[in-house]
Amino acid sequence: MKRNNVQAISLALELAMKKHNNVLVYGEDVGNVGGVFRATRGLQKKFGVERCFDAPIAEALIAGTAVGASINGMRPVIEMQFSGFAYPAFQQLLAHAARMRNRSRGRYTCPLVVRLPSYD
């Protein structure tokens, strides 16, 4: 079956959430609305508000909570509305997520996915 990018992302998220109970999907309008391009549509209904939910429009907060969740065993997939909005999150992503393994001498890792929709 041929899929477009949004359909492929949606299917991948659903399969990951089915297979792994520690996968979280959250960000700006991803719960009720389904994200900017609707890639997360229906996930909240299938997996509940504990695993797919809306976050405030605060990119640094979204990234920071993803760092905390990931070092505590969760596997967050976060989405910001557009790639241009990611700049406030860079401190969390670069200073903390990217360096976690080295800073903790391998004690912690920080596996997370950041989704940044953009127009072609």
TrEMBL record:
Coiled coil: none annotated. One of its GO terms (molecular function) is pyruvate dehydrogenase (acetyl-transferring) activity. Transmembrane segments: none annotated. Keywords: Pyruvate, Thiamine pyrophosphate. It catalyses: N(6)-[(R)-lipoyl]-L-lysyl-[protein] + pyruvate + H(+) = N(6)-[(R)-S(8)-acetyldihydrolipoyl]-L-lysyl-[protein] + CO2. Its cofactor is thiamine diphosphate. SUPFAM superfamilies: Thiamin diphosphate-binding fold (THDP-binding) (SSF52518). It comes from the Eukaryota. Residues 3-120 form the Transketolase-like pyrimidine-binding domain. It holds the Pfam family Transket_pyr. The keyword Ribosomal protein does not apply. InterPro entries: THDP-binding, Transketolase-like_Pyr-bd. The pyruvate dehydrogenase complex catalyzes the overall conversion of pyruvate to acetyl-CoA and CO(2). It contains multiple copies of three enzymatic components: pyruvate dehydrogenase (E1), dihydrolipoamide acetyltransferase (E2) and lipoamide dehydrogenase (E3). This is Pyruvate dehydrogenase e1 component subunit beta. It comes from Lasius niger. The lineage of its organism: Eukaryota, Metazoa, Ecdysozoa, Arthropoda, Hexapoda.
